[in-house]
């Protein structure tokens, strides 16, 4: 662990050297201007590294108000640095293109004004990104077509919520907005695909009272994500059971619609195994499946889809990716996640990846939004 900390800190230090060099080397700043920029950057980077090392120790994970503020502040600084580094890299790429491919295309990229703009633009991004969070969850309607959909399930509406990350950095008013929106929509079924609670449950009685108001005629189903396992998972899962959610740990719930049956299955996140909890067990799920049912499976991780489709599942619902959450990760996510967001077809199964209803880390989204998905089951018209 000592090695990882050293490597991570050295990596951040290297980024600091690169960014401060690129922001000051070619400008016509006086030595005072150059020193001021370097001191500002050194302070911001030191805050991020310091907070990272401080929270590394598990005993520092408990939430006291001043710690929450420190974490919040340094996450915002981290987001600022993220935008700044992205802009510095983009500028270098443009300068490379200008020098070697298309000369005199972009003007003076390294003027003092350009450098000031690069220091200021991340602040604009922070404000815009935060505004996206303030707007709250946005509804996305997704009709999904199936050849084998029983006619009793035609038009069934499943409201899909994921990656809410209830924690001190998510304001209770966000949860209140989400609950009000959900109640207005009157869905037939509500599903939660993990990373809903990302903190000690005792701290969030208020939010759980709000979630307890949710109702759906055919039930509310829930599977844990990786983040639930970081904070006393058994207590957390019990809190969801206590408010009437069906917590599905390799379990299948049968929902009858006249002669048709919808089987709602759920598997936990593989992170469970690191905490000596029950991990995903697809063989156990398969034993509970019946032949003619319509099968929906909840899995926090979309990456399990290749295995899940071998069970004869019709629809997998997932989250986890946050769609990259903010620039430039909303672009780069495709290099890390095969199924980043939206609808996919894998064999005979369809997979929907919701980009996350809440957010994680800094309070912002840029290039993505807080998604509340209404999945509508539709019969695929016959093609001759
Ligand atoms: Fe998440």
From TrEMBL:
It holds the Pfam family Metallophos. Residues 156-323 form the Calcineurin-like phosphoesterase domain. GO terms for biological process: lipid A biosynthetic process. GO terms for molecular function: metal ion binding; UDP-2,3-diacylglucosamine hydrolase activity. Gene3D superfamilies: 3.60.21.10. PANTHER family: PHOSPHODIESTERASE YAEI, TRANSMEMBRANE PROTEIN WITH METALLOPHOSPHOESTERASE DOMAIN-RELATED. This is Phosphohydrolase. It comes from Bdellovibrio bacteriovorus. The lineage of its organism: Bacteria, Pseudomonadati, Bdellovibrionota, Bdellovibrionia, Bdellovibrionales.
């Amino acid at each position: 662990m000592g090695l990882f900390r050293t490597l991570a800190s050295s990596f951040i230090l290297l980024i600091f050297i690169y960014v401060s060099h690129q922001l000051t080397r070619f400008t016509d700043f006086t030595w005072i201007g150059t020193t001021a920029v370097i001191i500002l950057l050194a302070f911001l980077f030191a805050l991020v590294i310091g907070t990272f090392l401080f929270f590394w120790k598990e005993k520092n994970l408990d939430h006291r108000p001043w710690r929450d503020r420190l974490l919040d502040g340094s996450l915002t600084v981290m987001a600022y640095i993220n935008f700044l580094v992205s802009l510095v890299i983009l500028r270098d790429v443009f300068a490379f293109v200008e020098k070697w491919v298309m000369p005199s295309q972009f003007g003076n990229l390294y003027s003092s004004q350009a450098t000031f703009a690069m220091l200021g633009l991340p602040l604009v991004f922070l404000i815009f990104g935060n505004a996206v969070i303030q707007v709250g969850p946005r509804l996305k309607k997704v009709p999904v077509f199936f050849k084998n959909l029983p006619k009793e399930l035609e038009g069934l509406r499943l409201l899909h919520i994921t990656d809410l990350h209830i924690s001190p950095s998510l304001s209770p008013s966000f949860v209140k907005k989400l609950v009000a929106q959900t109640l207005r929509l009157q869905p037939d079924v509500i599903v939660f695909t993990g990373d809903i609670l990302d903190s000690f449950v005792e701290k969030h009685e208020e939010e759980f009272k709000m979630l307890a108001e949710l109702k759906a005629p055919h039930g509310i189903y829930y599977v844990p994500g990786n983040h639930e396992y970081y904070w006393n998972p058994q207590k957390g899962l019990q809190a969801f059971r206590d408010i009437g959610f069906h917590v599905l740990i390799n379990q299948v719930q049968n929902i009858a619609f006249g002669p048709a049956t919808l089987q709602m299955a759920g598997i936990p996140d593989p992170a469970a195994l690191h905490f000596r909890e029950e991990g995903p067990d697809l063989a156990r799920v398969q034993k509970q499946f019946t032949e003619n049912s319509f099968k929906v499976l909840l899995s926090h991780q979309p990456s399990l889809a290749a295995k899940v489709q071998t069970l004869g599942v019709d629809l997998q619902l997932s989250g986890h990716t946050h769609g990259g959450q903010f620039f430039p990760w909303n672009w780069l996510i495709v290099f890390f996640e095969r199924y980043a967001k939206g609808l996919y077809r894998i064999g005979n199964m369809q997979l929907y990846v919701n980009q996350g209803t809440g957010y994680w880390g800094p309070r912002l989204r840029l290039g993505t939004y807080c998604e509340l998905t209404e999945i509508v089951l539709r019969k695929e018209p016959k093609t001759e």
